[in-house]
């Protein structure tokens, strides 16, 4: 039996760990489109973006062997062929008996905008040099990540303008009354 987990982030890695913890002894493949070992994403918009800390790995590199998995980093899933039970990838197709899709969300981009998004370690590292005194940064989205990026940009000395469709920052997370105070 082969289980393929698409997405080498927190959900994908924890799925692989849970399968092993529950006694699954079949073949286990973990596919990730990034070349980095799975890492903790929340610090990307704060500590990593400000250059205060390196990314935190979700599992030390030396501990992957105990999971007995086929870890394929830098391999993006591009499609699914249910007839042949294969995940189509940027490399060879990967056959599966069972499939878990743990890819997370994709950030929305403004049509025609060359702007940066923040979802991955590479995004954070690419954005960090742009946050500097004298720079003017526009942040689209006043949710948690948008506000964290704005705070990080201010901490680095950039002028920041936050734009959102909603009337208050963090309203979806905090509710209207608390967001009004923010």
Account of the 3D structure:
The protein is an alpha/beta fold and 182 residues long. The protein is 23% helix and 22% strand. It contains five helices and nine strands. The longest helix has 12 residues, at 10-21. The termini are far apart. The model has no long low-confidence stretch (mean pLDDT 94).
Question: Topology, pairings included?
Answer:
Elements (H helix, E strand, L loop, with lengths): L1 E5 L3 H12 L5 E6 L37 E4 L3 E5 L4 E4 L4 E2 L2 E4 L19 H7 L8 E5 L3 H12 L3 E5 L7 H4 L1 H6 L1
Parallel strand pairs: 1-2, 1-7, 2-3, 8-9
Antiparallel strand pairs: 4-5, 5-6
Identify the notable features of this structure and list them briefly.
9 strands, alpha/beta, 5 helices, four-stranded parallel β-sheet, 182 residues, single chain
Tell me briefly what this model is.
With 182 residues, this protein is an alpha/beta fold. The protein has helices spanning 10-21, 121-127, 144-155, 171-174, 176-181, and strands spanning 2-6, 27-32, 70-73, 77-81, 86-89, 94-95, 98-101, 136-140, 159-163. The protein contains 5 helices and 9 strands; from the N terminus they run βαββββββαβαβαα.
